[in-house]
Specification:
Layout (H helix, E strand, L loop, with lengths): L1 E5 L5 H12 L5 E5 L13 H8 L4 E6 L2 E6 L7 H8 L5 E5 L8 E5 L19 E6 L10 E3 L5 H12 L6
Parallel strand pairs: 1-5, 1-6, 2-5, 6-7, 7-8
Antiparallel strand pairs: 3-4
Helix pairs in contact: 1-4
């Protein structure tokens, strides 16, 4: 497992999608996304929507050609390791978007338009969890690899680094 973190609108999802696409060439890739609002994956009034919203079922499993979606009501948020164990068995690597407070290896997306400073701070207690930062800041330096959006070969290098540094879940 490796977490892709960054401030709002920094490009976390774009990076997760790019990394997943690159890693998918050789590995079984799964992802976890931390949302800030309730997901709305079905259309109002349609059958699945009615099962979930009107029926208030604890779980609704939608089986459709080529995909399966599970809606599940929860009374608390789980950490990404618990979620991975419960739902993502068989993954070679799990890319986790968000969950920056959890003790996972981290790749940060840092864009200056989203803030003057990255989340990374060498004084943080968990600063050693950072694996890399990808940024548009031309002079940003860190004690780990820093990739620039302007480079053309960073994706393959970052995918290899993610694979090398991903946290292995204990049995």
């Amino acid at each position: 497992m490796i977490s892709i973190i960054g401030k709002k609108d920094a490009g976390k999802t774009t990076l997760v999608v790019a990394l997943a696409t690159e890693l998918r060439r050789k590995l079984r890739v799964m992802t976890i996304k931390r949302g800030t609002h309730a997901a709305d994956l079905d259309q109002r009034g349609k059958d699945t929507w009615r099962h979930w919203h009107e029926g208030k079922a604890e779980r609704v499993l939608l089986e459709a050609p080529g995909e399966r979606i599970l809606f599940e009501r929860t009374d608390h948020e789980e950490d990404p390791v618990t979620l991975a164990r419960r739902y993502l068995d068989g993954a070679d690597i799990i890319l986790v978007e968000g969950f920056s407070a959890h003790p996972l290896p981290k790749i940060e997306v840092f864009r200056r338009v989203c803030g003057d400073q990255p989340i990374y701070d060498p004084a943080r207690e968990d600063a050693d969890h950072w694996v890399a930062i990808i940024t548009d800041h031309p002079s940003f330096r860190a004690p780990f690899p820093v990739f620039r959006f302007t480079d053309t070969s960073w994706l393959v290098a970052l995918a290899n680094l993610a694979w090398d540094r991903a946290r292995i879940l204990p049995p």
